[in-house]
Amino acid sequence: MGSAPLVVASNRGPLSVVPVEHGEDEVRRGGGGLVSGMQAALAVTPDAVWICAALNDRERTVARRAQSGRLSTVPAFAEALAGDFDVRMLPLDAQTFRQAYNGIANSTLWFLLHMLWEPARAPIFDQAWRRQWAAYQRYNLRFAEAIADEAADGATVMVQDYHLFLAPRMLRELRPDVHIGHFTHVPWIPSEYFAMLPDDVGYDLLDGLSAADLLGFHTPRWAEQFVECCQAILGRAPLAAVSVFPLGIDDADLVDRAHRRDVNAALRQLDETVGDRLFIGRVDRTELSKNVYRGLLAFRELLRTHPEWHDRVVHAVYDYPSREDLPEYREYIAAVERLAREIDDEFATDDWTPVLLEIGDDYPGSLAALRRSDVIFVNSIRDGMNLVVLEGIILSERDAVVVLSREAGAAYVLGGDALLINPFDVSQSAAALHQALSMPSEERSSRARRLRRAAGALPPAPWFRSQLDALSRR
Asked: How much is the pTM?
């Protein structure tokens, strides 16, 4: 039994090892509102520990050298942690991590919970897949054992996301004294779709989660569908309390970052490129569920059906590379690039390029795009929340109109002030873009005021604290 009164467990931790020039490594503290929110709670809890996986060979080497995997025993990491809390990094062998992470978490559970499968061809659950499933079980067990080792008597444990669906049950058997919370950052689905999993696997996943004391979801819809899955597949309601904790952004930190020198320079360059044209901005990962391909089809249909927008609008797509080791993603990125070229070939003039497609890690450029946006376009097939649309609302300096998929959790938060669309309906999406571009300034301003209020109402630190408070009452 350990001494930590609060333990957070997640696949990706708050620190990472990245290569820099001359073959050296650098320790970086993770960014983003979610990491910052949990760090804030950990920093004021003495002896708190964050448990995560080593994501690559560099991190595995560091984790093996650290005493008990504690990164505070490694000077470079201790400096980055600044004494706020400790991190235990698990050096799972590369094959187990790869099979659990790519084979199950990303290629099975992500596809399942975002309803991305093509049933005529996928999924296929054979012996090779079963080996990956066994790795996912080992991965979750390693986390459960590490949590059990670190947690103090009666400790609070907060487990994060779909990588660790089995961990609550495993931990409950090892340490019945601890209080377990789990938050699912992705959507949930109806039981008929969930039942595509092998029967024993579906049962184990739901039973694994149900062993927690508290289960959190972004929206009532996802929570209700989880409960319905339990009733249909387990034959009972979950043992855990199922609650809704919508997650927003830290708008103060975001605005500060978006007005630094590198972003201002990117914005000046963007202004030179776009001129006085209207600007449809989107920032995503090259992720199948983000639906960028249909988004480009909708923009093409807008230009075909409303020629009055020729030379008057630019659509910028900033896509961060994601899961490039999966063939489905490489093929999808290639299709997006081809379609962007085809749109430019059809409509571009000597001084107007209708599509600006940037695939790469350009954070200053993406923040500049959100500041410049007249329209923010998010047409996800499914999204647990989608924080980017909230960031765009806060950062836009032009009272941006939001065109938003009704299948994103953010639709629950933003309500009727966004133009909601069916993400599969290209024509409806094109019509919504036209409506957004044509919206009178008074209506734009009134919608934008309400959207900004909603987007800034759910910062990560209170989000995390509300879960801790709810768990303490169990």
From this structure: 0.94
